[in-house]
Amino acid sequence: MKVIGISGSPRKEGNTEMAVRLALEEIGKQGIDVEFVSLAGKEIAPCNACMHCKNRPKCIIEDDFQPIFEKIVEAEGLIVGSPVYFGSATPETMALLDRLGYVARNNGNFLRRKVGGPIVVARRAGQNFTYAQLVLFYTINEMIVVGSTYWNIAFGREKGEIIADAEGVETIRNFGKNVAWLLKKLYGEKDA
To answer: Which fold has domain 2-191?
Structure first.
């Protein structure tokens, strides 16, 4: 079993990356393989709805999408984190998810029943809309969204500030534990 954790922040080693890594750390403690992917510094163009991916699990846009896409296809779990940018997920995050969704739905919806959920980091506000925006991606693709003790949200602006958000950190850690628990229930302890 494997879970891919993606930080959609354009900032390396920032709060979103820290939050995604917290969840992956808990999953890894349960013997499940994890891999972190940062979109910082990567080029992910928006989907242009060209439909070239119809019955062909590949996007024809040449950028950093395809290697990330291939990791997601092979994994049983997917966690996507984004900071709040003007009340929504970052353009990098949505470009990746829009293209991923198009390719998946045009090829038998291979995202169906993958396990995971979103993580959102906010300075002050916009976290509820951004969280909902990302959850909708999971549900329209028939993925299994895992809950926690609250929504997977943490607060902080400057690098490292989310660590001071004790409730946010605990929520994200519990989310990671719940992802691992569900994967083990679905795929069996022996595979962990």
So the answer is: Rossmann fold (3.40.50)
Model-level pTM greater than 0.90? Answer: yes
77 DSSP β-pair partners: 3, 115
Q: For residue 37, which of 66, 58, 62, 60 has the smallest C-alpha distance?
A: 66
Name residues of the chain where pLDDT drops below 70: 190-192
Token pair recorded at residue 104: 């998946």
Tokens 């390719």, located at residue: 103
Burial of residue 192 (CB within 10 Å: 0-12, 13-18, 19+) is middle
Torsion of CA 134, 96, 120, 25, to 10 degrees: 110
| Residues sharing a CB contact under 8 Å with residue 166, sequence separation 6 or more, in sequence order | none
Q: What percent of the chain has pLDDT over 70?
A: 98
